[in-house]
Design a protein that fits this description.
Number of helices: 2
Order of helices and strands: HH
Distance between the termini: 23 Å
Largest sheet: none
Structural class: mainly alpha
Length: about 50
């Protein structure tokens, strides 16, 4: 089940070469899932 997130567009807009985007928040709110969804759409690589 995919949930639409408003923050996803903001993260995508801030992605730039040689820059870091920090995602933080409480446990178990979907931070890793959000990054995995963005990764699948644009990069298809895993970086942790």
């Amino acid at each position: 089940m995919q949930i639409s997130r408003l923050i996803q567009k903001d993260i995508i807009n801030h992605l730039q070469p040689n820059k870091v985007v920090v995602i933080y928040g409480p446990r178990r709110v979907g931070k890793t899932t959000l990054i995995q969804e963005i990764n699948k759409k644009f990069f298809n690589k895993t970086l942790f």
